[in-house]
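Sanity check

After download, print the first record. It should look like this:
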Amino acid sequence: MIKKTDFLIIGSGVAGMSYALKVADAGKGKVTIVCKTSIEEANTAKAQGGVASVTNLKVDDFDKHINDTMIAGDYLSDRAAVEQVVRNAPAQIDELVKWGVNFDRKENGEFDLHREGGHSEFRILHHADDTGAEIQRGLIAAVRNHPNIEILENHFAVEIITQHHLGMRVTRRTPDIECYGAYILNPKTQKIDTYLSKITLMATGGTGSVYATTTNPNIATGDGIAMVYRAKGTIKDMEFVQFHPTALFHQGETHPAYLITEAMRGYGGILRLPNGEEFMHKYDKRLSLAPRDIVARAIDKEMKIHGLDHVCLDVTHKNPEETKKHFPNIYAKCKSIGIDITQDYIPVVPCAHYMCGGIKVDLDACSSIKRLYAVGECSCTGLHGGNRLASNSLIEAVVYADAAAKHSLQHIDEYAFNEKVPEWNDEGTLTNEERVLIAQDVKEVGQIMSTYVGIVRSDLRLKRAWIRLDVLYEETEDLFKRVKATKEICELRNMINVGYLITRQAIERKESRGLHFTIDYPKKEN
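Expected structure tokens:
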């Protein structure tokens, strides 16, 4: 079945929904949001800490936020991207508030600001300890009520459509690759429909599920990045995988692991060994408030030195009522497994959290493929460089969604639907035995990535990952050609593509920078 929509948005987090609202308001055509599961399930909803923006001009300014971002990114960040996000952040905060998002305020009406690792000032707007969920709630309400927006829940984007599907040979050197829409799996019919669009936006989120343990929801399989890579688009900085230093250590909860927000360290939480001994002074003068890459490596090293499966975060010295007020969800979660955070240490461990690389885009969120934009975690704007500064991701998503909306509205009249696109060939069958193989291969990808492409890497480990992923790639591509496309096999293909990209780009970087730390190229001390 062939369907048409002027704006096709793949993904329903803060990036996709804020873009949808802006282009829908312009009245330039139909807007369709494709959600892999329900519109409520996205990485956005898992973000606890908040949104970074300069709002307290008495003590803070843009230059401080820019400098903090450049330092955290190990000076690999694109300064133009950093300036764009930081300087446009306050206006986008105003937009979120207009759409119904509530941020915590003091009694005098000013924003109640937190401070997080790597930030020189208190500039994190938040909603208790579930900021992402509050943003998602506000945007979902606005999107559902907009007459120009169609929401397709539980639909899965299989491939984006380019000249390749018209019979043209497309390579990474092909100039002027164009996107004409996407092939999308309909869950009711189990058929793949052809969605033609004038403009397509990727907002598919992160890649955490390629690791054995992650704070991301299970849907974070890097689908957008993999689709664009297969379409010969440019992918950049995939070696920079951020491991959040403090996920709750609780046996059996690995996908997703429960996040203990960075704001808890900004609040005064202290990292300790289980015996109460502090250790961050050995690694950084900022102690527990050092950037995430430094803290995650410090924890990883201490766990290896002492043979531990976790370290601890201590807030027992803080006022119990204040702790419960600021972190009600974390308090309740820990209490449910027998830990009273006002009296007990919180067991924590680093795990895969955020992808700093992705689909390379310019300042207008344009990818290397014409008519295709990318925003949010699946994109690589250059903001994060070698490491993301805490709470810069949600604000990046809304700033770049705004840039993408403005640019696409200026150009949409130049485009037409490509009527020559063929429908998807859906021949093939899938047996229960093949489903077992797919499930096993998904586990194997996670084991390979966590074992060989984790917080600390080496040439030998990366080569071993490369070889094992290559075997899985060949087997999976062979299977994909013989069976009907399903969400499960498509996700596996995407995970293998993403694992390959992380590994390959890690092999290519012959230095330790930011989140990429290799024992073969130790970082030179200044």
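If your output differs, re-run the checksum step. Summary of this record's structure: The chain is about 35% helix and 15% strand.
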